Fold this protein.
Amino acid sequence: MDRTTILSELKKVLAPYTENKAMLDGINEDTDLIKDLKINSANLVDIIIDAESQYNIEIDFDAAEKMYNVGNCIDVISEKLNRTV
Amino acid sequence: MKSAGNDIVALKTIDIQRTNSPVFYSKFITVTEQELYQQPQFAAVTFECYIWLLWSVKESVYKYLKRADAGLVFSPTKIKIKNINTPLTQPVFGLNGKVWESDHAIEDFYTGEVLYGSQNLYFRSKVDTEFIASVVSSSLNFNGVYWGIQYIDTPDYINQSTQVRLFLLKKLKSVLAVDELKIEKSLSGYPVVLQGDMLLDIPVSFAHHHQFISYSFLLE
């Protein structure tokens, strides 16, 4: 799965947790989940769990703590997907 | 270290079923912290409440430490709760007047110690039926720590953000007896207080979640 496809699916994971739908439509790898999408930090674990389910991967503690912007999320998901191939 | 850190969780928004799933809480609660819950003092505390109590403490610690370390990444399992003391008496909470503010009074808080690397901090938390709020300090007695919680009618993000700044400014203006204060964000993302264009040496922190907002600051 390429980064563009992961980003596209990541929007679906993030959608329930942001009020900023216009920003969500235009996210890029520099978009910060908290500063830009205004996602409450209390939902970060939800996003990790939802991403695990969406991509059928397991995200460990060390990887999860990097998932604060879209690019980092894609890095983690991409790495986990490659390991499961 | 001179800093401030607080957090608030609106319990109305949490997913109780998900919170009680090991897949969820094991992402940020260590095995040792899970074992702390088995102590008799937590018999009357629901597990989901316990989990979000620990989350709010860890988030508060992260905010406290990030002021000194701009590159710090939130690693909740590395922020370790050493001990938790439950209130001695049944607390009577509720935000009837929509605002609660504490200066230095000791009330019926959950209290305890938390460790990040070699940094030891103390926390106080209020556990209400509608929210859990925490504040941290390097001082056991929370000397100079001001802490406030407010209920807001409209939960949208912009209103939360606006109202928490107004709430904090109102308290700062009252305590400092000055009017020309404003809140801005530093390049690292933490809030700072300015009087005109002058940066004040008052560490501040704020948090907002759904219909609850909260501030803390340190004034020595």
